[in-house]
Structures are given as structure tokens and as C-alpha cells.
Amino acid sequence: MIEKAFKGNRYYWIWLALLALTAGVGFLSYLKQWDYGLGITGLSRNVSWGLYIANFTFFVGVAASAVMVVLPYYLHNVKSFAKMTILGEFLAIAAVIMSILFIFVDLGQPGRVLNIIRYPSPRSLLFWDMISLNGYLLLNLVIGWSTLDAQNKAEPPAAWVKPLILISIPWAISIHTVTAFIYAGLGARPFWLTALLAPRFLASAFASGPSLLIIMALVLKRVAGFDVGKEAIRKISAIVTYALAATLFFILVEVFTVFYSNVPEHSSHFRYLLFGLEGKSSLVPWIWVSLGLAGAAFILLIIPPVRRNERALFFLSMAVFISIWIDKGLGLIVPGFTPSPLGEITTYTPTIFEMLITKGIWAFGFLIITLLYKMAISVTMALPAHGDHGHS
Description:
Blueprint: H1 10-36, H2 51-64, H3 67-76, H4 82-106, H5 113-118, H6 125-152, H7 161-184, H8 197-223, H9 230-261, H10 264-274, H11 284-301, H12 304-308, H13 310-328, H14 330-337, H15 352-381
Helix pairs in contact: 1-15, 2-4, 2-7, 2-8, 3-4, 3-7, 4-6, 4-15, 6-7, 7-8, 8-9, 8-13, 9-11, 10-14, 11-13, 13-14
């Protein structure tokens, strides 16, 4: 089956070359960071997490969101999700790999990764994060490859695959819950010290991940003739709408609690994010763009005719994806460190090396997605028209 990923027209190979080139530039930039250290980034003593951890958090959510197509198809036998499910499983593989790479580059020295393995501690949330991410990656690799291989051979999947699928559903929830606990467990950071963080992470993940699936499904329909079906798109768009509603509700609840109670240690972080503090307001335009995109997208998505219009849905899905990337990216990380426990306000701006490394990991992730999707599409489109993905 792997050979199917390396057959395509000129435009396909140009796309692969562009992704490989961008990933290569990112890798060379990482070698510079490896040699010089994290001093080439915009990180500092006061803001020790930045663009890398922001993207790590976001893509863990994208990976977890695969459960929104796996659960209806395998547990509730929603046949319209047949073609969408394999796209979700393969997207989860690429998203987890990207998440792991963002942790890797954030550690500075790669050898530090081994410390979690050499000195495992059940009391460490990072230990559980390692278990959950790598376990979820392995589950999706086995499930995705086994089901696609069975489909390629026109056979039903092996009986042992179904229990793995059932295990992967709660496991998907766990990877983003553990991520949220890493933040919420830092008691000296009031911005993250909230029981709403895990539910908010999951709600936003179930909006951003399916939004990306919709975007990819519509792009594949146009460039590859691979149609997941209007019913699948409509159901996924409804999931995005409900998840976005929950996300906005959680944000409003958080804002009300913080500003109504007006506890300085909590409200100062939100004031910095939303309005700026002491003349420092670099994040203010970003977060208001995020809120504006989310609010406008939600208003339009709750109108059924708009949601059923694929052209409009494409742009609304882009708006949701970008909005949540901003909110769970710099809108989550930097305000957690600013002001510091001593009241210091440190402005964080990613350097060119950080951005190149980040772009490189994005490109590598989309290179993986492209190859996996090419393989899946080649197998699926070779089936008879009445075929149902070979899934049981």
C-alpha cells in the first residue's frame, strides 16, 4: 500500500517538494538552536513557554478530536462517516507526531527526553503525558493501517481491531485532559488555575479538529475527486457548531468569574490579554481577532442554510480553526506567565528561528498527512461504488 502514496501528477509532487523544502529549512534552523541553545528564541526566565508549547497544546487537541468521527462510526454505526473516519484517524497520527516534535524542540537538548524514561514517576504529569501521547499514536497507527489494509484486500478488519478502537475513544479524551492538567497543576499560575481548563480544552478541540477535517475534505473533493459525502460534512459541521458554542460559553464563564470577583492575582492576567497592562498590549489585537472570528463563525454556523453551503462552510471552518489556534496558542501560554508572580510584565515575541522551526514542523506534519491521505484515497477510490470502507 505504501507505494500508492508515491504516485501522483506534477502538482502533487510540487506540493510534496514545497513541504519537504519547508521542513528542511525548519530542521536546519533547529540545528542552529541545538548548537546555540534556546537563547536564539524569544523565550526568557519569565516567559519560558512560547510558540512551541502553544502549537503542542493546539495539536494535541486536533489529535484528540478524531474521536468525534470514530465514536459515531464505530459505536453508533453512522455509515455516512465511513470515508471521514479514516481521514480522522490519519489526521490524529500526524497531529500527535507534530505535538511530540514541538515538545522535542522546546526541551533544548534532545537528551532531556530520556529523563522521563530513565526516571519515570507516576507523580509526574509529564510522565503521564508521554504515556498518553505515545499510546494514542500507537493505537491510531495500528487501527488506521489495519483497517486500510483490510479494505485494500476487500476483507473485513481483524476481530482484534475492534477492542483497540473502543480503547482509543477514552484514550483520545485522556490526551487532552492530561495536557490541561499540566497547566492547571501549576498553582502559582492563576491564569491556568481553573477546573474549567480541561472541559474548555476538549470543547475547543472538538471545534478546531473537525473544522480542519471539513477543510481537508472539501479540498480533497476539489483536487482529488474524493467525496466524503454531504451527509458527513453536515454532521461534522453540526459538531463544530455545538463545540464552538460550548467553547464560547466556557470563555464567558471564565471572564465573568474573574472580573466579577476581581481578585487581582486572577484578573491581572485577563486584563493583560484583553486590554493590556502598563502600556504592554502586544496580545490584545490577536485575542480580539480570535474572539471576533469565533463569534462571527458561530452566528453564521447556527443558520442551517449557511452551514449547508459548502463554500461558506469552508471559510467558516477556516475562521474557527484560526480563532482556536490563536486562543489556545499565544492567548493561552503568554498570559499565564504575564504578569509574573512578582508582578513583572515581560513581552514575548517569537524570533525568526522559532517561526522557521515551527513552520518546519507544520510542513512535516502536513507532509505526513498528504502521504497518508494519498494512500487512503487510492485504496478507497479503487473499491466498488457500494463498498463501505471494509469496516465492521
